Amino acid sequence: MNGPDRHRQRSMRSRLIVVAAAIGAIALLAGILAVSRKPDQVRLSTPSLSASSAGTEALISPRSYSYKILNVYPHDPQAFTQGLVFADGILYEGTGGAGVSTLRKVKLETGEVLQLRRLRGHYFGEGVALYEDKIIQITYLDKTGFVCRKDNFEVLERFSYPTEGWGLTFDGMHLVMSDGTANLYFLDPQTFARVRQIEARDQDGPVPMLNELEYINGYIYSNIWQTDDIAIISPKTGQVAGYIHLQGILDMESIEQPIDVLNGIAYDAEKGRLFVTGKLWPELFEIQIVPEG
Questions:
Q1: How many C-alpha atoms does 111 have within 13 Å on its Cβ side?
Q2: What percent of the chain lies above the pLDDT cut of 90?
Q3: Which CATH number goes with the domain that contains 168?
């Protein structure tokens, strides 16, 4: 090999060494950044569902969850809770009872009622949901819903629906309403026309008595009337992916006044906080979901 060839070989070898060193440095820097990157904000986890080759969720046995109490807040023991939603640091609550139903704005930390609107006449208030700058409240047997301004509860319009009204939530596109059966109805939030419906089912068949609703991270959480369970439901297929068992969350030994069933789910999307309460319960709980088994 002559002198110029040897010179070119050494020059090429030197360049290859430099390139290899640069690649190694980049890889090392990427590893450091991956390790030092701050984790995303902790959010409420939801169960993973298996999918069939056809793209629909396979029927599986729902997962079971228990709970851990993180905080306890005061709750009006006269509030027959039918709907609950959290936004901008405030709880919005719909209460029931013929002639005593209300829509209210509540301070979480103290339970203080900051604003209240009474439903006139015989209306029995049920679920509530927020949509844009409005709050929507449905009623039990009158097949009538009210659209109110979120800031002052002024009634803007009324709408009707063909079933009983139980729970209500907003999934980012549609209002979702329950009627005490296993059905969930998806409504256009502007016209209130029914767009579609699903039936909640687990491995044993339909799951009826769906009551108060809350949409959380891609799933519909529903109280099941007269139980201490919350069903986690796929809005695509109606499959129940899990059950949260809340037995014993309210200390019955310390309760001196009459109470009713667990009802009321609210979610703080900004901080990932989940709240639950019940009808005539003196307390509202912030909980963490804990897998069983």
A1: 15
A2: 77
A3: 2.130.10.10
More confident residue, 106 or 48: 106
Domain count, the chain: 1
> Is 53 a domain residue?
no
Q: Is residue 165 part of a domain?
A: yes
Give residue-wise pLDDT tens across range 117-165: 999 989 999 999 999 999 999 999 999 999 999 999 999 999 999 999 9
45-49 long-range Cβ contacts below 8 angstroms, 24+ apart = 45/217, 45/289, 46/216, 46/217, 46/218, 46/219, 46/232, 46/241, 46/242, 47/232, 47/241, 47/242, 49/234, 49/239, 49/241
pTM: 0.82
Q: Which two tokens stand for residue 181?
A: 């059966």
Domain that residue 220 falls in: 63-291
Containing H/E element for 5?
helix 3-36
Residue 177 within any structural domain of the chain: yes
**Is 58's pLDDT higher than 60?**
no
Where does the pLDDT of residue 24 fall: very low under 50, low under 70, confident under 90, or very high at 90 and above?
very low
- Residue 49 belongs to a domain: no
- The per-residue pLDDT of the chain, averaged, comes to 86
